[in-house]
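In response to reviewer comment 3 from the previous cycle, which asked for concrete evidence that the modeling workflow produces usable outputs, we include below a single protein chain processed end to end. The sequence was submitted unchanged, and the resulting structure tokens are shown without manual editing.
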Amino acid sequence: MVADPDALAERRPPALGDYVGDERLRPTHGYGRPVSYESYLLPLDRMIGPLEQAGLVVTARLEQEPGGRVTRPRACLLARKPERP
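The workflow returned the following structure tokens.
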């Protein structure tokens, strides 16, 4: 996620997409090989917070529920700098 909101605010508007949720993942295999790491799925609202802290406005929010080949909820956010008066 975003480490420095001030740095993000000065770049081009971001488009973020990822799996969302509230769980810790510990895969044991990846691409046919053993792996060992942890990753954390974040709720969508926790992904929005750092964008807003950076002074950006979320302009689009797309959420995809699991179904078919999609096994976990996914989300995509678009953000931009606010219009200046």
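The mean pLDDT is 84. We consider this sufficient to address the reviewer's concern, and the full set will be provided in the supplementary archive.
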